[in-house]
What we know:
Blueprint: H1 12-27, H2 34-41, H3 45-51, H4 55-74, H5 82-94, H6 104-116, H7 121-148, H8 156-174, H9 183-197
GO molecular function: DNA-binding transcription factor activity; transcription cis-regulatory region binding
Keywords: DNA-binding, Repressor, Transcription, Transcription regulation
Protein name: Regulatory protein TetR
Amino acid sequence: MSSDIFENPVNTREEILAATYRTLRDRGYADLTMQAIGEELDQSPSLVYHHYEDKDALVLACLEYLLEHFRDEYSYETIDDPRERLEEVVDWCFGTADADDDRQPFVRTVLELRVQAIHDPAYRAHFTRSDQVFAETIAAIIRAGIDTGDFRECDPNAVAETLQTVFFGMISRLFSTDADGWAEAVSNEVELYLDSRVYAT
């Protein structure tokens, strides 16, 4: 997935979402304000308030936009090379362990927002849906691979949930501790898991 999803906003709504994305990435949720988003837009905060009631409504709209972008990018009417597609998704996810990955600041913020879901039903609903979309995307690729003979007979949903759980466990550790020497070993174990559990050859 492109790391610059908002490179070419086509209307005011997308410009506001792009400014929200950049402000979240640079400042984090705690320091996000409508004023800060207005400054990023080089516009009065009143423009932001005209479209969104408060910062949480805006953050949730931004997260929904990103989720739809992910769904569009990784949804295929036909999957010609299931292994290549699965490796793309796995690389996109586990690539955030790389200290040079430019998505790290935003992924850190998403983890911060997940904490909001403990007490906020709106965030909980979003991340429930987000997890479902992510798992369904992986499961669809695995089903396609089973159909083509590229993958072993396995439970696509169980494999998808396993990969998702490992991924979110990994980013939770990455951004809440000072140790990251284990990340490469975990990525290698994921590859071994796919080789032994999913890939046919």
